[in-house]
Amino acid sequence: MKFVKHIILVVFAFSMLTACKDAEVKKEEVLRPVRYETVGTLGVQKTRTFSGIAKAGDKIELSFRSSGIISKVNVSKGQKVKKGDLIAKLDNVEANLAYEQTISALNSTKSAMNTAKSELDRMKSLYEKGSKSLSEYEQTKNSYQNALSQYESAKRNKGIQATQLSYGVITAPKDGLIADTDGGVGERVGAGHQFAILNAGDQMKIEVGLPENIVNTVKTGMEAVIAFSSLDQKTFDGTVLEVAPTVDDGAATYTTSIGIDTPTPDIKPGMAAKVTFNFENTGIASDNSIIIPVKAVGEDGDGNFVYIIESEDGVKGVIKKQTIEIGELTTVGFKVKKGLFEGQKIATAGLQTLLEGQKVKLQ
Fold it and tell me: What is the pTM of this model?
């Protein structure tokens, strides 16, 4: 009986060991995802796609032109407004006081002017009758001119103060949609504080950042195709509206605006988009040179290299470091003189962290 129990324990232990080994075998290996591109010739690199953001065609920044405390906010983010609608205003005590003082001064000088005019009319009548001398008449006329000048000055001051008062009020310059606001009632702001952004008009555009090796190939009026992932990759025709003449310091790229030829209400400001340019007729020489992106090329003590991804199923692969000889830098990348063949897969990101023989997942 003891012998039978011993046999059972041995079989159980063997079964558990086998199960553990099976679990280890079944444990899925975690592979690092890596971005890649398939090596092609210059002729097949005639289209390039860039990421962009949808923006309103007419973006207006609304700011206070004087300092003060916000006393009223009449809009919220996402609200539609009409031209002339009140957006916000300041409780500018100083400006209000100055305006009231100019009104008081205007009324006072107007009264003084009217009195001086009446006196001038009376003196003129007496002078014509010979009851007053010329010097008395001239003196009265000068008094009237001084009163008139003071009245005109007070009118100008009232206009200036009225303008200053308006600097604390923001109204909508056009019909549109409030895209953003910055500030609330009771908050003190300075002159020039941008309180709101107004998206006006129906025109929509996409802004993309182009690298320096591409920007000179993209021209105003050039056609493009725009796709939105949030709209099930629906595509729209676009036209280049503007190419920035200077680089954006923050991104080291040139901001380029592409107008959407036939926008729909489904396209909202802030949506991510992909913009594809066709460089077929931009003067790029048609040849069979191997071309690879600049970002795929590394350099070490042996020269330039790329990381080839050897893959049989197109899903998983193994990294292999390959020394190459690069040639001319074109608008779409480096020409490769030696070391690569069309159809090979090469890594295009994270070169500093890839290793020879490393297993990866193609992304």
Answer: 0.42
